[in-house]
Amino acid sequence: MRDLVYHVAVSLDGFIAGRNGDASMFPDGDHAEAYLAQLKDYDTVIMGRRTYEYGYSFGLEPGQRAYPHMRHVVMSTSLRLPGDAVEVWNGDAADRVEALKRDTGTPIYLCGGGTLAGALHQNGLIDRMVLKICPLTLGEGVPLLAGAMDATRWRLSGQVTYASGVIEAHYLAA
Asked: pLDDT (tens digit, 0 to 9) for every residue of the chain, 174 residues total?
């Protein structure tokens, strides 16, 4: 069974984006090159509608894959896209993720957002987290894991500190 990996940048106060989903304040730096290299480890990406649409501000066209080498599944009840390069799933997210985890392939990249991640976490579906902890506070925004949930223990399995001040922490579900 494939792992679901929540691989995301997060502020010191626990937000993956600021007000209105803006992530532009997260720093660039030496950690970005490592992230791009790590993307090759995934063959499937899942994300929420707002995360997918955030790519439009960077030139992503509706229906286009944000990560060309990956199968895309966007969880949304309202998004309609042209073509078939991106799957839009409007059913139960946990059911779809369970099916994806049973498929063959590499680990699955959970790109965001916080509401989707919170729901998948509550269903016990996130196996690993790779958190790029950025040296900034946002005060408000999109939380790392949104929604009410039970306490969960995670085990630190590795970490890297970058010159940019970003700490990449790897956690396994305990």
From this structure: 999 999 999 999 999 999 988 898 898 899 999 999 999 999 999 999 999 999 999 999 999 999 999 999 999 999 999 999 999 999 999 999 999 999 999 999 999 889 999 999 999 999 999 999 999 999 999 999 999 778 899 999 999 999 999 999 999 998
**Angstrom distance (rounded) from CA 116 to CA 71:** 18
Q: Which residues contact 125 (CB under 8 A, 6 or more apart)?
A: 4, 94, 97, 98, 101
Tell me which fold the domain 4-173 belongs to. Answer: Dihydrofolate Reductase, subunit A (3.40.430)
